[in-house]
Amino acid sequence: MTIHSISSHREIRSAQARVADQDWRTLTGELNAHGCAVMPALLAPDECAEIAALYPREEHFRSHVVMARHGFGKGEYRYFRYPLPDLIEGLRTALYPRLATVANDWNEKMGVALRYPGDHAAFLKRCHDEGQTKPTPLLLQYGPGDFNCLHQDLYGALAFPLQVAVLLSEPGEDFEGGEFVLTEQRPRMQSRAEVVPLRRGDAVIFAVHNRPVQGTKGHYRVNLRHGVSRLRSGQRHTVGIIFHDAK
Predict the structure, then answer these.
(1) Is position 3 within any domain?
(2) What InterPro entries does its record include (predicted)?
(3) pTM for this structure?
């Protein structure tokens, strides 16, 4: 399978099948308990290599960000332009309904009135109606000494509360260090850090901004940020699938 040789229709069906094969009961439990969950082997090694190989091909991207210029860390990334590569578009479309169910449950528990529609096209229409029309899926590249500061990918007033990152490189072979890190700040408590081990092709689902936590008097809201620790050696590529568009 490649991201170029298979038609968009077949690619989306393939993405739907692999997303449906995931253990969503366990994934939902992990998201509710920890704010993150790992989908193992979502992409095959050849798919990872093909997506990573797009990085120098500027025709696929709308913008290029060098993190050090903006205080985001060290490393760089490129935002894809529309139309997205078929496989990335297919995964974005297939993952969204599963995660919308979690997102709506979280909003109900946090007392947030906003509810998300059941399909991604309807949600993107909301984004575009808000003036958020720029695609947000991105391809990140790190070299020795690079890192990504803790942050939140919001991009506008309308933000979907979950996103997905897929590691395209193999730890221990392609790079050392560079762990995915999630931090959570609970009211009147110290921050909690979660380091998520990933292999090439694994995808981590994680909270973008807030999530509910069960307390003694009901649910309360916690704030999350994510980043990548310092790369010790080698090169690391990741594809980020963000479900809301940007202004």
Answers:
(1) no
(2) DUF2086
(3) 0.93
